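Human: Cast an eye over this sequence-structure pair and say how the chain folds.
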Amino acid sequence: MNLIKFIALLLAVVHCSTTIAAQSLKCANEQLEYATDKRDEFCVFRAVVVKKGAPEPVFENSASTKVAFLDSNFTRLPDQFFQAFPQLEWLVVMSSGLEVLTIKNRMRVVHATGNQIKSLQAEGTAGAKLTTLSLRDNPFADVTSIAKRLLGLEVLDLSGTEVAEDETIKLAVFAPLVNLTELYLARLEAAYLENDEEMELPSLKVLDVSGNFFTPSNFKLRVFRTLPNMEELFLRDASMTDLSVTDIRRDMPAVKRIHLGGNDFNCKLLVALLAHLKERDIEAPGQSSSCPQGYDNVEGLCCKSHGNVYPPRPPTGPIDSPPKEEQDTTTVTPTATKPPTGPSTPIDTTKTQVKEKEKGSSKHYLIYGGITVVLLIGLSVIGFFVHRRNAAKRRLPIPSSDNQMQDL
């Protein structure tokens, strides 16, 4: 009997602890910026943690249609969450470690940026109702699953994902999304933009391919002919140094704005390109108020002057002595056609040093020459006396044999 009571008490304790662990969660209404320059009121959950093997939290029933999770940690949303929010239409999950995205029937807008999403699940007719999906900054690569299941999409943001295949953005894969009006494919580390199948995206109005590393040989404007209604193209920070344009209206018949900031165009090319766009009533918005050294600002866009960095301007005032480390370097500056003007004219220290060296060398030559002359004179005098002594010896009388006999 006592054993039965003990077991019953133990079960009660376990049930109570489980109930306590699985606490109910309630969201709070607040204004939230869920995307850049986009705000709305959401019922917000914060710091929700769901660990494997631990009891799942219990969400209080709510009629809210817009729900957001911030600063949380879970790999997927529990089924009980969707049961507690049967009217859910908007879902925002930001930087919460989500790996699997589940889309239910009534959901229309999903922003799940900065997570770990690699796969998505669309239940029932959810694919036909979802109009906006942002998977920005997730390791997501399965574009086919989107194109097959989410046919109602109008806005799709895959920036910062892994959807580029072999460094190539393939526009044809998005062709089944016939209602798509905005497509964001920025920062995919792509070098190529292709549509070899020439599949049209008839409804697309906005395309963003900024932040990819296109080069002129890999980038052809004719690829945009399959986007007949595109009005706005974002081509910022694309490492572009050249752009071949004959008549941009042939490739983009409906375009109204092209964003070109952050590229590396030559100023001469940029001026010609902007003139070409103006003639066809196409805007090229500028954003830069100042440009780095070696670049000019042309209508708010930075460009290289003649493709080269400007040399430093020659000083017009007194020249300070350079530090010792700089005296061993050689600086080449452009040859001026006119002498510099200003409060004071810089002294040509190089010529002065050369003249001083020449004066010093002349003094040395005079000294050496004087020593040489003195030596020559001395040698001449010595030679003269030696010659006289030898001549005197030759003039002495030679003793005869008679004289020798007399001496004997």
The helical segments are 2-21, 79-84, 126-129, 143-149, 248-251, 267-279, 349-394, 401-407. Residues 13-20, 307-359, 393-408 have pLDDT under 50 and may be disordered.
